[in-house]
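Hi! If you just cloned this repository, the fastest way to understand the data is to look at a raw example. We've pasted two of them here, unedited. The first protein comes first, obviously.
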Amino acid sequence: MFNGVAVITGGSSGIGLALAERLLRHGARVAICGRSAERLQVASEVLDPFAERLLAVQADVTDREQIRDLVTSTVERFGRVDALINSAGAGHLGPITETPDAVIQSLLDTNVRGALIACQEVWPHMTAQKSGHIVNLCGILGVKTIANAALYCATKHALVGMGGALALEGRRLNIRVTNICCSGVDTPFWEGIPGKPRTEVLLTPNEVAWAVADLLALPPHVIPNQLVVQHVAHQM
């Protein structure tokens, strides 16, 4: 089981929180961040039994200085960064002609630029220690498409492309990069988004967290470049 140091963006709810709890239960040291102070407080209470191995920082992935502070604080507290999980994300479904500029910019900033910033900030630390694992939670729409999701598909396809390129860039540095493409997950992601699938065909955050934790625990010579995880009743 992975027992190193993990940084999880979007770690105050959903998949990120479930993963933080799973890793902490197996001895890892974990830093989480989230934009909402309220959700971060609730997450800290959930993870309180592991407080000595937890760092919770309010940070927005679109703010480079805040993410730099998160990574710096993690290294100061735990000495290194072994894994980065880009779990923070935003969603939008709707006809392309009804997608406002503000929504376009918000999704590009969070889903693409935010993940890129986090990778940039951990990369020098992983390069110096000659090891590291970056996991991008891209969603199934990083490799598939559906109607009324042009913007969301664009951001997730971009994330898949970024991960693939970084995997090649990190190969000789012993930095692994994995894209995980999940079908729908029952998380707060769906708040305010129409068309949520039935709960019984959604994955749970714990199921995805299990998959991520297992990936992080693989031997260092194994490179899982891409993993598709789908509910048997909700395959695309």
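Ok, and the second one:
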Amino acid sequence: MTLTARQRLELAALLAIGITPFYLNGLYNETLAKEHRAWFWVVEVFTWIVMPAMLLIVGRLRGLFTFTELGLSRKVCRRDLPWAFLALLVIIPFLAIRLDMVVYQWAHSSLPSGWPHPTFHYSDVVPLPGPDTGLWRLLVLLHLCMTAGVVEEILYRAMFDRLFPRGWAGGIAFVIISTLVFAGAHWEGGLPNVTEAAILGVFYATIYRLTGNLWPLMLGHTIIDWYWFSS
């Protein structure tokens, strides 16, 4: 379903609400994690679970998208292609992981930090391995990896794509603008992290625009984050 200009404005407003905390959390995560750990998790759960769920509900009720239009189905290129869907579930995560490894090594060995940034990393809140921390460590890893893998792909790729018309011009605009917004939200990691996010963003946005299916991207994103957070 093609959105009207008014509907695009409504969707843009929902995206702004959902994405804004990702630009701001670099300003308060470090303080909350070190001095107010309980509040850190309250804010974390609201930002990554409660608010995205509310945005999905509102967007669905307002007729801005269906779950199929967001790519949350077996359809590939708008057709029911189960074998292509299964192939994408294997190929896309593999390519994403390999690309991320190469980009990470190059960016963090070749690029300066670029600007002062917080010393906080999400891995700081992951409990260390041990007999008394196993369950909490698993829960924290599942939260960090699955929320980022699911929420970021829904917002930056699936919902963002709905703002742009079909065709090459709309596709190019979607890839460029969504990538810039996605990369900018990683500013607190410095220039290497922003560059890594930008290159992965181009890959993710291009694959989504070509296939229209979100599941392989969410799976690949989740696996990549699991690797970095757990290690």
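That's it. A detail worth noticing about the second one: The two ends are 43 Å apart (CA to CA).
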